[in-house]
Amino acid sequence: MSIQLSEHFTYKKLFRFCLPTIAMMLCTSLYSIVDGYFVSNYVGKTAFASVNLIMPVLMIFGCFGFMIGTGGSALVGKTLGEGKRETADRYFTMLVYLTLILGVILSVAGVIFMRPIAYMLGATDAMIEDCVTYGRIMNGFNTAFMLQYLFQSFFVTAEKPQLGFLVTVAAGCTNVVLDALFIAVFQWGAAGAAWASVIGQCIGGVLPLFYFLRPNSSLLRLRNTGLDINIWIKSCLNGSSELMTNISTSLVGILYNFQLMKYAGENGVAAYGVVMYTQFVFAAVFLGYTIGTGPIVSYHYGAGNHDELKNMLKKSLVLMLGGGTAMLVLASALAVPLSDFFVGYDQELCQITRHALSIYAYSFVLYGVNVFASAFFTALNNGGVSAAIAFLRTLVFQTLAVLGLPILLGLDGIWWAVTAAEIIALMVSVSFLIVKRKQYHYL
Known about the structure:
It contains 16 helices and no strands. By secondary structure, it is an all-alpha fold. Helix 1 runs antiparallel to helix 10.
């Protein structure tokens, strides 16, 4: 029996409703992880470093779909809560149009400027061709990547998280199989990894179009509609925090690579790649939860149900803190096997990676709380507060930490930077939750 947005959510219902979106995000994280494994073990650490160097830029282009999806689903969810289903369909359709238009523009720009971007990021002569090849193929299909992010949010708003999960699993499995075929069998190198990923992304981004174009049993359907620029602007502003988080994370990732080239060279960049793959998986759990709970919060906000807002906030904070603590234990335990899995062929690199993972693991304790706090305000259609939390947490605090801590702690300071930033960000998140409690009545 399906769970509806209008219901009261117990821990059991939250688990059942959010499990598909968590699994969906975990499958999405497989793209870069599987690419990284096959490139590292079948092509070499230089190609592995090249892929990791260009990846933050690709994520910046793709996360515009995440911005439209999260900001737009909050607006559509609120509209559904107000009982305006036809209007919600029109808003949804407008946002799909926006994603298609913006995706094409970003794809063309990325393909044209990929080489100078790679040099700007610090690519060496040995790395540049793999950077450009991987980057151009991936960015050439950025529209599909953006659509996949968009529909991951809207499947939940449409009360079809299980269907979104199945589509993402199909995309992820396709990526895994093609990575093995293109890299290990055909030996296409970094280009093979890119082609495997974009084919998977096309499945995840294009198939949902056909579902929503046809009559279906969900709350949403694509319909003929005019364009309202105000809806585009409102959705983008509301989702700006998610855009800010992803762009800031990517920019900080670029800064990490600069610092690591300075303190540890190519081995440092390769080790950071493994750390990021671990972070992708653990972060996917938190992001999947926020995608799952966002439409619930938006619906009850639109319906004026303050008691359910209180319920969602309380239960979510408990789950985020408990989950973060569990992830610290798990990441610490997996530091050695994960390092051996990705870079076991190089003992020096493997040792650096193990040490980095054991330190970075502490950041997961507070990661979920801060991510949820930002997403909570997005769901309340308050993009300003959400963006402020995201901007300070990811760009300001992490930038200061990754620049300042290495001066005191050397290479270890780079690995401790995210944990320090999360601690400071928690103070900001708690402050906003307290200040805004009377406006939204969630406390």
